[in-house]
Design brief:
The structure is a single chain. Helices cover 44% and strands 20% of the residues. It is an alpha/beta fold and 288 residues long. It has a single domain (2-281), classed as Rossmann fold (3-Layer(aba) Sandwich), CATH 3.40.50.1820. It has an eight-stranded mixed beta sheet with strand order 1-2-4-3-5-6-7-8, sandwiched between helices. Helix 2 (77-93) crosses helix 8 and helix 3 runs parallel beside helix 5 (168-179). The N and C termini lie far apart (38 Å). 40% of the residues are buried. Residues 1-14 and 21-35 have low confidence and may be disordered.
Amino acid sequence: MKKRLLLVILPALALTALVTTGVYLYRREPSSLGKDVILTTLPSAVLGEAREIVVHLPQSYHQSPTRRYPVVYVLDGSSQEGHTAQGAALMARIGVMPEVLVVGLPNTSGPNRARDYTPPFMRREVDQPDSPRGAGDRFLAFVKAEVMPRIEREYRTAPFRVLAGHSRGGLLVLYSLISDPGLFDARLAFSAPVWREDEVTVSKLREALASSAGTSTFLYLSVGDQETERMIRGHHDAVATLQQHAPRGLRWRADLTAGADHQSNAELSTPVALRALYLDWQPTETDR
């Protein structure tokens, strides 16, 4: 039985390693895909400010006018959506996932990032006792009420939504699972500092999982093995919570990324996360 199990696991691990290496090398070459990148501005009534949105159209978008695409919403759009779009495009080209439409949500300033990505049950600045609470609930309301309708109205989207976030953005990804599990079909949280405030995010996640027996979604977590001890410890505690309390409908995977630090983990982990999300995916006529 063990030998048979290894025969199944080893090819999957080899393919994941190959995909990750391919994406890493591809990111260091000029893009030859020629896909459109559209920068637009959305005046937000929820946030009371104008926000930029960066849309990466997949390669086949203009050649396949009836085809619809899953959407990956990427927090920290100014720094994270580029490698996400390029990695996803390469993986689609080698046939391990469908093409996707990637939507980057850039920040407006440093303080506003803390405001937008911190859950409302946490202080924005962990080392300031009088720091205001986060407004992640308001930012998620902006995404739900304004960004998603805009994207789904103006582009050919399939009914499958993914949210990806790094660091503080990873906290918002986890908060979205806690507060509105049905909003996204999959969530990718890279290097989320769940150690903050005595791991309150882990506690909230445990409570949410206990009351979400009907949840059907995918969650990916990762942290770099070169990150701080408290980052790794918090990650392990979140994994333990998932092992003990994840409902049957929650499909999940968690990794300690070899050789990654806090800055590089998201880029190294994204292809692994997407591969895990689409592990059983097979192309159909609508994907060609």
